[in-house]
Specification:
mainly alpha; 10 helices
Length: 252
């Protein structure tokens, strides 16, 4: 039990560091809990979503201190994300676990591939040109997919905003904020419909918070292009790892 808790805490710190720094990291959390620690996906996802509430607050605080959050954009994203995140928590109870695992693999692999294909030095657009309706729609899709897969929001949101040429630091800052309504709504849904392991959630919350704090600090000091490339490669390999595990379970 002690070894498992230490392993889970270490995983949380690493994941939190990536979330706080580049907005992508939650994607490795649930797959690792499932495939490395043998935790059922329907237990891992609710625990991760509850943990994102605390870590999201910490990372948002650091980004807000550095004036890296566009609050007008964040409001529309959160408006769209909140109801769909609750719906996603309900959907988790109905979807076959293998389908959830496949969805995690696709999100991981495609997110990494998308980041690798992005050109370095691409001209960034003025984020104020993004319409409010588009932001609400993006938030709705982010809320549902994040809740269903346990990724917390940043994994889905950051690649979308970067593809729209929103400045990287702005995208990462918005991804910190959207964790909060997504995680709160999903957790309420999980309490009503799912299975919540409070010991696992507490361990993840503490470790994710430490990692997210450090990552958010690093986001304002280190070159993000190099970090984005490293994480993109990791995501591609994690996605392939998930596909491999799914294939093995189907062959048994």
């Amino acid at each position: 039990m002690t070894v498992a808790l230490i392993g889970t805490a270490t995983l949380g710190v690493i994941s939190g560091l990536m979330i706080g720094c580049i907005g992508v990291g939650g994607v490795i959390l649930v797959p690792a809990l499932v495939f490395l620690f043998g935790i059922q996906i329907k237990v891992a996802i609710p625990a991760a979503m509850l943990a994102y509430i605390v870590s999201g607050l910490v990372a948002s605080f650091v980004f807000a201190q550095n004036k890296s959050i566009q609050w007008d954009l964040a409001g529309w994203l959160c408006t769209g994300a909140t109801p769909t995140a609750f719906a996603g928590a309900w959907a988790v109870t109905l979807i076959e676990p293998r389908i959830l695992e496949l969805g995690l693999g696709l999100l991981t692999f495609l997110s990494g591939l998308n980041s690798l294909l992005l050109r370095q030095g691409i001209k960034e657009a003025d984020e104020r040109n993004v319409s409010q309706i588009s932001l609400a729609a993006i938030g709705a899709g982010t809320g549902f997919l994040s809740s269903v897969t346990g990724t917390g929001g940043p994994l889905v949101l950051v690649p979308i905003l970067i593809a729209m040429k929103v400045p990287v630091l702005t995208a990462v800052g918005l991804s910190q904020v959207i964790q909060l309504p997504v995680a709160v709504a999903a957790t309420l849904g999980n309490i009503l419909y799912g299975e919540l392991d409070y010991l696992l959630a507490g361990t993840l919350a503490a470790s994710l918070t430490v990692g997210s704090w450090c990552g958010a600090k690093l986001a304002h000091t280190l070159p993000r292009e190099m970090l984005r490339r490293i994480v993109a490669v990791v995501l591609v390999f994690v996605g392939l790892f998930i596909f491999g595990n799914i294939a093995l379970t189907m062959l048994r």
